[in-house]
Amino acid sequence: MKWKPSSDSHLTFHEQIVDWMKFRIESGDWAVGTKIPTQRQLAIQFNVNRSTVQLALDELKADGLLQSKLGSGVFVTNISWNVLLNKTQPNWKKHIDSSIHRANDHTIQLINEYEQYNHIIRLGTGELSPELLPTKQLEQSLKEITLDAKSIGYSSPKGNERLRRVLCDYLKRRGIQSEPENILIVSGALQALQLIAIGLLEEGSVIFHEEPSYLSSIHPFQSAGMRMHTVMRNHQKLAENLKVFKRKRQSIFYCVPTLNNPTGVNWLLEEKKNLYNICKELQIPIIEDDVYHELLFDHTLPTLKSLDKSGQVLYLGSVSKTLSPGLRIGWIVAPSPVVERLADIKMQTDYGSSALSQEIVAHWISTGLYENHLKNLREQLKNRAAFIENILENQFRKIATWNKSEGGFYIWLRFNKPIVNKALFLNLLNQNILINPGYIYHSGDSHHIRLSYAYASLAEIKEGLHALLLLCNHE
Amino acid sequence: MKWKPSSDSHLTFHEQIVDWMKFRIESGDWAVGTKIPTQRQLAIQFNVNRSTVQLALDELKADGLLQSKLGSGVFVTNISWNVLLNKTQPNWKKHIDSSIHRANDHTIQLINEYEQYNHIIRLGTGELSPELLPTKQLEQSLKEITLDAKSIGYSSPKGNERLRRVLCDYLKRRGIQSEPENILIVSGALQALQLIAIGLLEEGSVIFHEEPSYLSSIHPFQSAGMRMHTVMRNHQKLAENLKVFKRKRQSIFYCVPTLNNPTGVNWLLEEKKNLYNICKELQIPIIEDDVYHELLFDHTLPTLKSLDKSGQVLYLGSVSKTLSPGLRIGWIVAPSPVVERLADIKMQTDYGSSALSQEIVAHWISTGLYENHLKNLREQLKNRAAFIENILENQFRKIATWNKSEGGFYIWLRFNKPIVNKALFLNLLNQNILINPGYIYHSGDSHHIRLSYAYASLAEIKEGLHALLLLCNHE
């Protein structure tokens, strides 16, 4: 499908490639600053030798259209337009640099980029391995689903009503009392945070969280102009701290009390009660991000939401960590006025979530397929956790510490020495190994890695950890 | 699934209902200001007589927990909490009122709300009628699709690669040259606007558009702090106006040049060339919203994007108007740096669109199912347009004017007298008829209605227009 040089042309391959690249630059597709694909990728796309690609690139560099930057690749130069013609093009770079939303942190952009490639060993990915996804059963359930026209039209603002009813029932087992009107279907928990940021908080609001924090690796609140403030739930002056930093501003407390991301920690019941009582007194709403709950290995735990008698807790759930991230289905449980407000904004943002995905999730939960799948999944994750812990025990005991996993995906590995910096990240990436370094969850952290046993195969985990160990010993 | 009073209880039905409602208020689910469902809806939910519901409501009103507001329903009073207990709850209303995103216009909120009810005749809905949706074929294609684990995991930032390749090919027929790297898959065109607003424009940027405008009925740019500015493409001083109002600020020009929403108008080729040249000279990027293109009845038209030699035009498409809005799949065609930037923000917003929906769309377009469906759909819409035009011709000729439809969903009906105000909207709603009044597309317009022949059944259209006519003659 992609363009290739043709053997019917009167031009040589390398001349055709030069013309094609000039056209891309001229048309604005490869604007100033665009990083062009690697020689290897281009050689594959064009079905030519790398030397042919190199010849073409050299010519364009000599013309001043392209430029190599040491160690980071080949880029379209900022004089390329003048070289080609004296034409006017929008200055996209200027547009982007001055726009509202923050770019992802560079390490996270690299993670997003390299997660696309099959040859990469992913030691930190917060996602189920392809072999753990119930692909065949999902395919089977597609065959069983009956669509009606209503279910493929625009969904009602709060989402598919059947799914909301099914969820009410499902969440009861977790001590959460709700009615369908208290549930908003969203495209994953991240979108829930986005909606809360723009729909419930004024600019300059204070977001309290504990670090390390998943929130430090994403920016829904920061991009909406909120201030992040780190507090620790066990600090004896927690209430005072919240009061002082909140002052007269609006605020919200974000937490992942069950199988925390990235630490894997479960809060004690006492800690939950304490936080709830303090926040209630100070009228600080709480976001309970509970997307890992189903993955507790041995027993369930009471949610903060189940303690909530005052409509204080906004509860987030999702099937992305358990069934399939590709469905893009999550939910918010909240008081009705909150649900109505967020539904109104969701309608203004994307007119609702995929109706098809909502049907599938309702089908899986209501038929018990989901519960059965979860049983099996927990078993497999537990085995994977044991596998990785065994390697750690044998090889990392002298240089690092960690807690035994109680569920979910992660082990928050702490190195005794502060060796986890961007250089280590890039060094491993150079060996096709991708890690999630602690500093993306807590700026300045140089001790931790969020290891995930959910994604890579056991052989890959072994190989990846071995390479990591060699690097660490080398430090 | 929903709660119902039980006949096993030692309490009467109405006592159980009172307790249940008190619990809802107490728990914060029915916070201050919540509008509670109608007596009729509650009677259905509880499976009791309306008189039982009324008894319960009367008791709660006497207690000061509920309050009727004339003509708008029954609400939770602002002293309800004091009445129940002296407890602290978050003040959600204050949160909502001071937060960042604009609420939908009240008329639009009512439209969103009433579109959920089956008994409403929807004369303005911009959506295919259930009978025009290819529900059975979609169900059939679910059975044919093979999933692989990769396709149900998190999607790559730009979206399913196969779909992007299929779209490159598909868009060639419309004169649009692109590579997969120039395409970003989004959850519908509205999300594309949202991403552009926060990803390409600084606060205070100027958004140019023609009014009436779809953009006036939604607020992605306004909520991001941009200024809307109305210009007309045929104004002889268009270039000067753009220059004056842009000044040194960033700006973008939004347009729907093919089957405009709400007017149905198609721009002339000369108008497109003229706008493109002016915007190119002034370095104003253009958003070409082209979601109705496939619904041109008789012949295709050149897109603005096909004239674009400078990477100036951001082109939006979608299957929401043609195949199924519930899939939530659309796309942006743009220069690579723009696609990369918006993909980065999309990853931060919702981690991509439904993988399942993307698979389905790729399947429909690549197998030709989509093209076949469109042929049939255009035929049916053409018949519907003729039906509504026939009624207009026979009954509205003396009081209104309109253009014959060339495709899409809409007729922009202009009444000679300025009778289209909120009172008319509410009056019709009272008769269970929903219209899209012109003022939601152009503040202050009191002459127009956006009629849609796409949604309501022919019998409903006839009945609805009859009621409208009676009201108009009454004015």
Automatic annotation (TrEMBL), chains A, B:
Residues 11-79 form the HTH gntR-type domain. GO terms for molecular function: DNA binding; DNA-binding transcription factor activity; pyridoxal phosphate binding; transaminase activity. It comes from the Bacteria. The keyword Plastid does not apply. InterPro entries: Aminotransferase_I/II_large (IPR004839), HTH_trans_reg/aminotransferase (IPR051446), PyrdxlP-dep_Trfase (IPR015424), PyrdxlP-dep_Trfase_major (IPR015421), PyrdxlP-dep_Trfase_small (IPR015422), Tscrpt_reg_HTH_GntR (IPR000524), WH-like_DNA-bd_sf (IPR036388), WH_DNA-bd_sf (IPR036390). Keywords: Aminotransferase, DNA-binding, Pyridoxal phosphate, Transcription, Transcription regulation, Transferase. PROSITE patterns: HTH_GNTR (PS50949). Its cofactor is pyridoxal 5'-phosphate. The keyword Transcription regulation applies. In the C-terminal section; belongs to the class-I pyridoxal-phosphate-dependent aminotransferase family. PANTHER family: HTH-TYPE TRANSCRIPTIONAL REGULATORY PROTEIN GABR (PTHR46577), TRANSCRIPTIONAL REGULATORY PROTEIN (PTHR46577:SF2). This is GntR family transcriptional regulator. It comes from Cytobacillus kochii.
